[in-house]
Amino acid sequence: MKLYEMNTREKLKKLITDSLESIVGDVAINQITIEIPKSAEHGDYSSNIALQLAKKLRKNPRQIAEAIRGSMPHDTILEKVDIAGAGFLNFYLRSQVKQRIVVDILTKSDQFGAFDHGVGKKVLLEFVSANPTGPLHVGHGRGAAFGASLSNILKKCGFLVSREYYVNDAGRQTDILTVSVWCRYLELSGLEQEFPSKGYKGKYIKDLANLIKAKYGDRWLKQFQITNLPHTTQDDEMLIDLIIKEAKRLLGKDYYLLKKLSLESQLMTCKEDLSLFRVDFDGWFSEESVFSNGMVREICDRLNQGGYTDVREEAIWFKATEFNDDKDRVLKRANGDYTYFASDIAYHHDKYSREFDKLVNVWGADHHGYIARVKAALQGLGHNTDILEIILIQFAVLFRGQQKVPMSTRSGEFVSLRELIDEVGVDAARYFYALRKSDQHLDFDLDLAKAKNNENPVFYVQYAHARCSSLISKWNGKIEELTRFAQQTNLDQPDELLIMQKLAEYPDVLKKCCQDLVIHNVPTYLRELSHLLHRYYTATPVLSADEPERSARVSLVAAVKQVLHNGLSLLGVSAPDKM
RNA sequence: GUGCCCGUAGCUCAAUCGGAUAGAGCACCAGCCUUCUAAGCUGGGGGUUACAGGUUCGAUUCCUGUCGGGCACGCCA
Questions:
Q1: Edge-to-edge, what's the strand order for the sheet holding A88-93?
Q2: A329-332/A315-318 β-pairing
Q3: What number of CA atoms fall less than 13 Å from residue A262's CA on the CB side?
Q4: How far apart are CA A309 and CA A340, in angstroms?
Q5: Does residue A57 register a pLDDT over 90?
Q6: Which three-class secondary structure string do you get for A211-264?
């Protein structure tokens, strides 16, 4: 099925192409761009083709534009063609043609805005991937909101998207989680002592210890005093490692049971929070699995066979400098443990084996130094890193009014995603996160976000939607007949034409998002469309107008409502009928 | 110190792979509810796009340098 918006654009391109052929012959003109101008004064569509050809043809751009217009075949969709500015061709559509967008939207409903840019392309979108060692915080929330919205947009545009969460259920942090729970557990049993400074201090650890004690009893109860450790130390990092070692010795198999229970509990909380936040995943990829299935060893072997490894000071290094990284990187430590880097290579190696056309990673911006080494390793394994796209999400800097809120998962000083949701609601949080370009710092004022008043931009858009709904429900006509009304009566007031022009822009917004892998254009667009609707609502009577304008206007309002609904749903924000 | 990202209205941010007079929101000022939801609308002031050069018909956008901010530079994850 040909799409209306593509139709118009293709038609304009064809007109220009035909015209150019007749005046300049076979000049290479494969990239004619038809854009929607920022200002409605510049027409419904415009092209800068004359400016682009100016150098090649060694002619004044305005003259070229004149020539193009002069030999352009007449077409019924056009009201007029203007030449403006330095040599822009501005196309004005006849209002009846513009009005087709209303019919198009009402016909396609939820599918309006979709296009075939991504048809058949498989994309793996990995996001959040926070350590299951504590609740998700507001920093993770931004990545979650971004990934979920981006995947919605990509899907809408035909991409086959798999959403994946990489679960770091291996490594030192998971041991720290385990002994943190254990220490709290011992406290509960009356073995009070100073809590290790490098342990996780959040209240959730105590809650978890409580839960485990209530459910499983005293099986982890051992006589243990930090001060009685075989090698006491002043170094906090070494101390926590000693505790881990001692816990493993004292608890034996039960240590791993405690670890399993702790991780499962954290992961469950994480899944619940994400679900509440309307963020879903297709797969949860376990880091532990790439160890147990031998993948980590395999990729190390392969890098070794390629001659890309080195043994120095009893550790195995990957020669990342041979692939444009500034340092070589350790794969396997002197103590025999693999690094996080090694398992991450294995994970990405696995991604490649699953035959995606594009791999997208959404990472916290603090990981940017990590990109070069991962790409280097993947190149060492013979993979094409051009298909791997890494999007960095800057952390949200929290404020309570003027006061900056310090955040650190380990110290337990953070605002959880759950807390944010409870305070401001999912709608406001999702919209707020989507508002800004992800590679920009986001000042997140909690007091402002908590305030459920008109300061929050999500209400503006939702209110526009609610107003549309209200009009339609009071209209008392048959919804199925709206498309007929949209065709029968001309809507050619300036504000109506502006709305139709804006509606036609929606597919462009989604396309842009897919091309740039961004989402912030959606809220920007929704605000603009909402503004036009509010203005129309204030200035033009709809229900109190006479027929046939009355029903035709309702059809326009219905089209706006549909697009607002479509856009909000991509962002995971509800579109209420009443407010 | 080295690398990456960033610097746009008082504040928070946009600006369609180099395009037209750099746009919104908040804040400020002046107006609009006996009519479909005032969580709204209308009008107004506000800018050397950090600074200095360069590339060209044209630069917020690309290149170089300076200043300022963030992040990363671990046998942590």
A1: A34-35, A45-47, A88-93, A78-84
A2: antiparallel
A3: 31
A4: 17
A5: no
A6: HHHHHHCCCCCCCCCHHHCCCCCCCHHHHHHHHHHHHHHHHCHHHHHHHHHHHH
Which chain B nucleotides are covered by protein, judged by CB under 7 A?
2-6, 12-17, 19-21, 24-27, 35-42, 56-57, 70-77
- CA→C1' distance for A420 and B40 (Å): 28
Domain segments of chain A: what residues?
Answer: 4-93, 122-166+280-389, 167-279+394-452, 455-570
Q: What is A4-93's CATH number, 3.30.1360.70, 3.20.20.60, 3.40.50.10350, 3.90.45.10?
A: 3.30.1360.70
Q: How far apart are CA A197 and CA A501, in angstroms?
A: 60
| Residue A358 DSSP SS3 | strand
What pLDDT digit, counting tens, does each position of A421-477 carry?
998 889 999 998 999 888 887 877 777 777 677 778 899 999 999 999 999 999 988
- State whether the beta carbon of A537 lies below 7 angstroms from any atom of strand B: yes
Q: Is the CB of A441 under 7 A from strand B?
A: yes
For the CA of A324 and the C1' of B52, the distance in angstroms is 32
List all residues 6 or more positions away from A390 whose beta carbon is below 8 Å from its beta carbon. A360, A361, A363, A371
Q: CA of A124 vs C1' of B46, distance in Å?
A: 46
Q: Which of residues 282-321 of A touch strand B (CB under 7 A)?
A: 287, 312-315
Query: What is d(CA A525, CA A502) in angstroms, rounded to the nearest whole number?
Result: 9
Does at least one atom of strand B sit less than 7 Å from the CB of A48?
Answer: yes
Query: What residues are paired with A400 via a beta bridge?
Result: A403
Any idea what DSSP says for residue A393? Answer: E
pLDDT at A5 over 90: no
* Length reported for chain A: 579
- pLDDT tens track for A82-141: 998 888 999 999 988 899 999 999 999 999 998 877 778 999 999 999 999 999 988 899
Q: Which fold has domain A122-166+280-389?
A: Rossmann fold (3.40.50)
| A263's tokens | 């991780």
Query: pLDDT tens digits for A358-381?
Result: 999 999 888 888 999 999 999 999
Count CB-CB contacts under 10 A for residue A336: 8
- Per-residue pLDDT reduced to its tens digit, A148-204: 999 999 999 999 999 999 999 998 899 999 999 999 999 998 887 788 888 888 889
Instruction: State whether the beta carbon of A436 lies below 7 angstroms from any atom of strand B.
Output: yes
Whole-number Å distance, CA A407 to C1' B63?
39
Question: 1.10.730.10, 1.20.1250.20, 3.30.70.640, 2.60.40.10: which CATH number matches A455-570?
Answer: 1.10.730.10
